[in-house]
Amino acid sequence: MPATALTFDIRRRSRTALVVATSTYNDPAFRRLRAPAADAADFAAVLADPAIGDFHVTSLIDPTGPQMKVAVDEYLAQSAVGDLLVVYLSGHGVRDARGRLYFVAADTSQSRLAATGVEASWLQDRLEECDATQQVVILDCCFSGAFASWAKGGADDLSRDLEELSGHGRGRIVLTASRATEYSFEGHAVPGAAITGSVFTAGLIDGLRSGQADTYHLGRISVEDAFLHACQFVRRHGVKQTPQRWSYGAEGRIWLAHSRPRPTSPPPANPIPETGPKPAATVDERQVADSPPVARRPRQQHRTPGPRLAPPGTVIGWGGRNPSVARALATGLEFGRLVVPAGLLGVTAISAGGRHALALTVDGTVHCWGENTFGQARAPLRRLSDVRAIAAGGAHSLAICGDGSIVGWGNNNGRQAKPPKTASEPIDIAAGGWHSLALLKDGTVTAWGDNHHGQARVPRGLADVVAIAAGEAHCLALHGDATVSAWGSDEYGQSSVPATATNVAALAAGGSYSMALRVDGRIVTWGRAPTGLDTRRLEGALALSAGESHCLALSHDGVLHAWGDNTYEQCAVPHGVGGIRAVSAGGVFSLALIAVP
């Protein structure tokens, strides 16, 4: 069947996309697919929309093998250094007896696969020779995960370290709809589903078109943001496929689209008079990046983006000498009342401190509970308005208000609860043991409070910072190029960033240790880090939180892992807890923000 194409001269723009879809096949061994053509049209429309992707798009529908190769070869050959290109392939994917992946073209013969199919390794080679600085490859076909695993000719163990798979491409990210051994589903395979295209592609389109993938409200969506939204979309529709993400020498984030303004979440029942929706908080040294995804916040001009906004939900807690979450919700603790307040709904952010906790609700109200020796669990409501971020430290608390001011309360013996005048236009905050940090709109960091270990003395020239974390007496900063800086106490090596902390997407700082979540879902730890879980085997982590001496990590499949000190049962995750949107590890307890059905 002849291919239909809509082509443009890609040299006119630096943002270009090639969308290839095959729905009909000459060989009856390959059943006709109804998703690819529709997916291609929808995805191309989203990418080409000036208000969303603003890409120059080339579409190729039902090509033969030679037509597909020529189109890909010509497209990649015209790219130049500085270009951002997207290659999207949808259709049948098959593997031969040796496990090699082939993309099925309209004229591919199953009995002559090597001669008539388009081998994945051929595309790998073309990408290696491409000059484009940033490359995004999206594969929506069965067994598409084999594309990455075959890069070095290895087996289908996709849990291996990313270094073992890395090619020599410059800034390449590969997204696949499934693992090397899984099928990719069309919408009709999902019972009761309203979608009619591929579930994975539908998830990408949904996140870009609706803007919901822009969870930080930055006005733009990265490849990682779009991927995480698609993963959640796939899980929501009950499909048994596992999307994969691979990074080959990526340099910081690749921005895929602008996001359109969207309606805000409704307030909870019986709300305090609404002053507008609020973003979720970042948490202190005992914190997690608020749910999937990740904590990197590229800086913006002419606006103040808040920390990540989680869908409104409720909070559960465990630990603090409670044998179960049921007791935690019903019993005051002998040292501090770590019981979660009853009826706490509409929560968008949580932050666990030493022995107190904070929650931010959709109406901008801050709720506090736990130990209150220094007033850290008693919010100064008259000083707080239109709150956009919260952070709980060792025994002090911080909040960013809608007017850009930072309010602190609780222990101020080190002046950690009294922000300096230099903390202007903050977009993020972190509360440490006796010190505090603020990430400013211009990508710089200001610090205040105790400085015995140099933790409140920001390194000269520190810039292009997109995320921060504060430990007991040390600090972490994530830069736009996905590298990490650290300063402050290094008694246990917590400020000595290892070489493996590259391509980092999120940070967390604990008592005397540090954690980094890489874009490939791997967790790197250094310092006196808690033990009890081999993080190398924790595949596809989406978020992490560092407590005083225990850790939490939310994995790709929605399972919450906890390890480290369990003296107070802070690692005893309640059985059956699901729908987790954010987690936060405190001194001797843990919190989770869960969706309300």
TrEMBL record:
One of the GO BP terms on file: proteolysis
Residues annotated as signal peptide: none
Biased segments, Pro residues type: 263-276
Ranges where the Peptidase C14 caspase domain occurs: 15-247
GO molecular function annotations of the record: cysteine-type endopeptidase activity; guanyl-nucleotide exchange factor activity
Region of interest (Disordered), ranges: 258-317
InterPro entries: Caspase-like_dom_sf (IPR029030), Pept_C14_caspase (IPR011600), Ran_GTPase-activating (IPR051553), RCC1/BLIP-II (IPR009091), Reg_chr_condens (IPR000408)
GO (cellular component) term, any one: cytoplasm
Annotated NCBIfam families: caspase_w_EACC1 (NF047832)
Entry protein name: Peptidase C14 caspase domain-containing protein
